[in-house]
Amino acid sequence: MDLLEEQAEQDVRMTYRAVGSSTGQTEFAGETNNNVALTHFGSGDIPLTQERYDAITGAGRTVLHVPFAVGSISIFHNVPEADLGGSPLQLDACTLGEIFQGTITTWDDAKIKALNPNLNVPTNEP
């Protein structure tokens, strides 16, 4: 950030605060400041909701939202070990993406079963 400050045509000051994506978006949207932004840019690991985007643009501000990465730290599941069929639960990136997206909502989904042929879970239960 020092290099950007030094090379900027106008006087700018940048800081980094590890406040988390939700707080960063709240400050950027100005939700606690009568829709006046407390920050001018940010980066986070959760996308802006349509509601938040609409609130920012509805306040007459321009926003450029550039999704550049999707990441996750870990996944927890509630499948009992006995139902896993003697193997760890296997999920590929596409299947995991569909779980996060809400497209896959039960453990007996065909895509999960294809990756875990010995999986023995109840039908149509989350």
Summarize the structure.
By secondary structure, the protein is mainly alpha-helical.
Written account of the structure:
The chain is mainly α and 126 residues long. It is built from five helices and no strands.
List the helices and strands and how they pair.
Blueprint: H1 2-7, H2 21-29, H3 50-58, H4 93-101, H5 110-115
Supply the key terms:
126 residues, mainly alpha
**Sheet with most strands:** none
Average of per-residue pLDDT values: 86
Q: Structural class from helices and strands? A: mainly alpha
In whole angstroms, the N-to-C terminal distance is 45 Å
Q: Report helical residue fraction.
A: 25-40%
Tell me the series of helices and strands, N- to C-terminal.
Answer: HHHHH
So what's the overall shape? elongated
Count of DSSP-assigned helices: 5
Low-confidence stretches: none
Q: What's the total number of strands?
A: 0
In what range is the share of β-strand residues?
A: under 5%
Radius of gyration: 21 Å
Please state the oligomeric state of the protein chains shown: single chain
